[in-house]
Specification:
This protein is an all-alpha fold. It has a domain at 2-53. Helices cover 44% and strands 0% of the residues. It has five helices and no strands. The chain has helices spanning 2-13, 15-18, 22-29, 36-44, 47-53. The longest helix is centred in the first third of the chain and has 12 residues, at 2-13. The radius of gyration is 25 Å and the shape is elongated. The termini are far apart.
């Protein structure tokens, strides 16, 4: 199971593998020790099968709930008004 995750990390971090053919991915898989089911799921890009093998969640959610009455903070992208400096008098 851990090797399947390491393989996915490797594919995600190596630009040569991210769009590689099945043959190149199969060759890359040879350096990882994993079962035939995991290997087949990875090569077939069978996400439901891989999720089941790795005991993952089918769906994940992310929510941000702001408390009532919360004021919006200034965005860091907005310019901040700064007082103009006076030029030295000559």
């Amino acid at each position: 199971m851990v090797n399947a995750i390491r393989f996915l990390e490797t594919v995600g971090s190596d630009a040569r593998l991210s769009g590689a053919s099945a043959g190149v991915l199969a060759a890359a898989l040879d350096s990882f020790d994993m079962g035939a089911e995991e290997r087949r799921a990875l090569l077939d890009a069978d996400i439901p099968a891989l999720t089941g093998l790795l005991k993952g969640r089918e769906k994940m959610f992310c929510m941000i709930i702001a408390p009532d009455g919360a004021e919006e903070k200034e965005s860091p992208d907005e310019p901040v008004d700064q007082p103009e400096e006076e030029s030295p008098k000559e």
